[in-house]
Write a structure and sequence with these properties.
Helix 3 links the parallel strand 4 and strand 5. This protein has about 450 residues and is α/β, with parallel strands linked by helices. The chain is about 50% helix and about 10% strand. The chain folds into 2 domains: about 230 residues, Spore Coat Polysaccharide Biosynthesis Protein SpsA, Chain A (Alpha-Beta Complex); about 90 residues. The protein is globular, with a radius of gyration of 22 Å. The strands form 3 sheets. An 8-stranded mixed sheet has the order 5-4-3-6-9-7-10-12, sandwiched between helices. It has a two-stranded antiparallel ribbon with strand order 1-2.
Length: about 450
C-alpha cells in the first residue's frame, strides 16, 4: 500500500494509525548492522527519555533488507532506565521497524523516515547512522533541542576528526558548499542530522527519489536543499565520530563520484541562488566544544601519488577536455620527481573543481565518465595536502582547510563568469514555511 508517492508496507501504515501522532521522531537507516545497532538504539532511547520526558516520541528503523540479526536486535533491545536515573514514566518510546522500497540506498531509507514523520505530524526529527560506536544520549538532545526550543529547521553535526579523516569533506564538500551558498556548515555530509517536520515534508515533495540522490547523495542534498529553501540552519558539537572501519581505498572512487555528482547537479538546480552570493558567514554552533581523542588514519602517500601520475598519462585526453588549458599545463608543470612528491596547491585545486563543474554542466562527455576521471586528480590533491600537513596537529591542519575555503570564495568569479551569461541575476531563496519562520524569528 502507498501513501502519496512514498510506498509503505501495510503493517507500517497500521502501526502509524495505532500511534496516531508524535512530537519527536528519530530514524535509523540500517543494512546488516547487527554488531552496532543495539548500542545506537540504547543511546537514542536513553537520550529521548532523559532529555525529552513527557514528549511523545517514535524510533523508526528503516531497513534495506538485512540478512543478519539487525531487525531482531532493534525489536528486542530494552533499557534499564534506573541505571540512568530515569523513571519508567519518562521512558515510553514507540518503535516502527520497516523495510524501505525504491532504489537501494540511504536516500530511499530516509524517504521512508520522512514519510512516517509527515504522517505522524512530527515536530522535530533526527537521523543517526546504525554503525556508530561513539554516539551518546547527549547527541539526541543536541540534534533535536535547537529545533524544539530555538526554532531552527536543520541541525548539522560538528565533529572533531583526524586531519586525514574526511578528506572529501575537507577538500571538496565543505569549501565548495561554503563558497556557493555562503553558509559555513563544517560537515555537510556528516551523516547525523536534525530537521523539522516541515523540512521533512519539503524534502518529500522534491522530485529526486528516482535519481542517484536516493542511492548515495542524500547527505549533501539535504544540507544544500535546507539552505536553498530558506530554512534556518545551525550546527551541534558532537565530539568524535567513531563508526565501523571502512576501507577508504575500496570505496573512494564511488563515494567521490556520488558526492561530486550531487554537488554539481545541485549547482545546476540552484544557480540563480549561488551565482550572486559573495563570501560566507558563520553558522551558529550549539554544544560544548572540547578536545577528544580521534582514531589515527593511515595514509599511503606513495600509492596516491602513483595513481595521480598514472592519471596524468592515461587520462590526458579526457583531462584536456574537462580542464582549462592553463589548468592542465600547471598540473603537468608541478609534477615532482620522488615517489611521494606531489604538488596541487590551493589555487590550482580550486580551478580543477570549478573547471570540472563547468564541464559537467556543458555535458562535454557522459557525466559518469567525467566524474570517474576526477578520482586521480582528487588523490593528487589529497597527497599534496598530506605532504603539507605531515608535521602539523589536527588543529593546525584545520587552518589549512580554512585557507582553502577562502581561496574557493575569492576565486568564485572564475566560476560565475564561465558558468552563465553575466546578465542573469540571482533570485532570493523561497521561504520554506512562513508560519514556522514567523514563530521562530527571522533569518539572522
Amino acid at each position: 500500500m502507498t501513501t502519496g508517492l512514498t510506498p509503505l508496507t501495510a503493517p507500517t501504515e497500521a502501526r502509524i494509525r495505532e500511534i496516531g501522532s508524535a512530537e519527536i521522531l528519530v530514524g535509523i537507516p540500517s543494512y546488516n548492522n547487527a554488531d552496532t545497532i543495539g548500542h545506537v538504539v540504547r543511546a537514542v532511547s536513553v537520550g529521548l527519555a532523559k532529555h525529552f520526558p513527557g514528549h511523545r516520541a517514535v524510533l523508526v528503523n528503516s531497513d534495506g533488507g538485512s540478512s543478519d540479526e539487525t531487525l531482531a536486535i532493534v525489536a528486542r533491545t530494552v533499557i534499564d532506565f534506573q541505571h540512568f536515573f530515569i523513571s519508567d514514566q519518562q521512558s515510553i518510546l514507540h518503535r516502527i521497524i520497516t523495510p524501505y522500497y525504491g532504489i537501494p540506498g540511504k536516500g530511499s531509507a530516509f524517504r521512508t523516515i520522512f514519510e512516517i514523520a509527515r504522517q505522524l505530524k512530527a515536530r522535530a526529527c533526527a537521523v543517526v547512522d546504525a554503525d556508530l560506536r561513539s554516539i551518546s544520549p547527549e547527541w539526541i538532545e543536541l540534534l533535536l533541542r535547537p529545533i524544539m526550543e530555538k526554532g531552527y529547521d536543520y541541525v548539522a553535526p560538528y565533529y572533531l576528526r583526524h586531519k586525514y579523516d574526511g578528506t572529501i569533506t575537507n577538500s571538496l564538500a565543505y569549501p565548495l558548499t561554503r563558497a556557493l551558498y555562503g553558509q559555513r556548515i563544517r560537515q555537510p555530509i556528516g551523516g547525523e542530522f536534525g530537521f523539522s517536520g516541515d523540512l521533512a515534508a519539503h524534502y518529500l515533495d522534491q522530485h529526486v527519489w528516482d535519481s542517484e540522490v536516493a542511492r548515495f547523495g542524500i547527505d549533501i542534498w539535504m544540507t544544500t536543499e535546507a539552505i536553498a529553501s530558506g530554512a534556518r540552519v545551525c550546527q551541534s558539537f558532537l565530539g568524535a565520530k567513531i563508526h565501523n572501519p571502512k576501507d577508504p581505498a575500496a570505496d573512494l572512487s564511488a563515494m567521490l563520484m556520488q558526492v561530486m555528482g550531487a554537488l554539481f547537479a545541485l549547482m545546476e538546480q540552484h544557480q540563480m541562488l549561488w551565482s550572486g552570493q559573495v563570501g560566507s558567514q558563520p553558522v551558529p554552533l550549539f554544544g560544548f566544544p572540547h578536545e577528544v581523542g580521534v582514531e589515527p588514519i593511515h595514509v599511503n602517500l606513495e600509492r596516491m601519488v602513483s595513481h595521480y601520475r598514472q592519471g596524468l598519462t592515461d587520462l590526458e585526453p579526457i583531462w584536456r577536455q574537462v580542464l582549462a588549458s592553463d589548468t592542465f599545463t600547471h598540473l603537468c608543470d608541478l609534477q615532482g620527481t620522488s615517489s611521494t612528491d606531489c604538488r596541487v596547491p590551493d589555487e590550482l585545486w580550486v580551478q580543477v573543481v570549478y573547471d570540472a563543474a563547468i564541464a559537467y554542466r556543458k555535458r562535454i562527455m557522459p557525466r559518469d565518465h567525467l566524474l570517474k576521471a576526477l578520482t586521480p586528480l582528487y588523490l593528487g590533491r589529497t597527497a599534496s595536502f598530506v605532504q603539507a600537513t605531515q608535521g602539523l596537529t589536527s588543529t593546525e591542519a584545520e587552518q589549512k582547510v580554512e585557507a582553502l575555503c577562502h581561496r574557493f570564495e575569492r576565486m568564485k568569479p572564475y566560476l560565475v563568469e564561465r558558468w552563465q551569461p553575466p546578465t542573469l541575476k540571482p533570485a532570493a531563496p523561497a521561504l520554506l514555511h512562513h508560519a514556522t519562520l514567523d514563530a521562530g524569528g527571522t533569518h539572522g
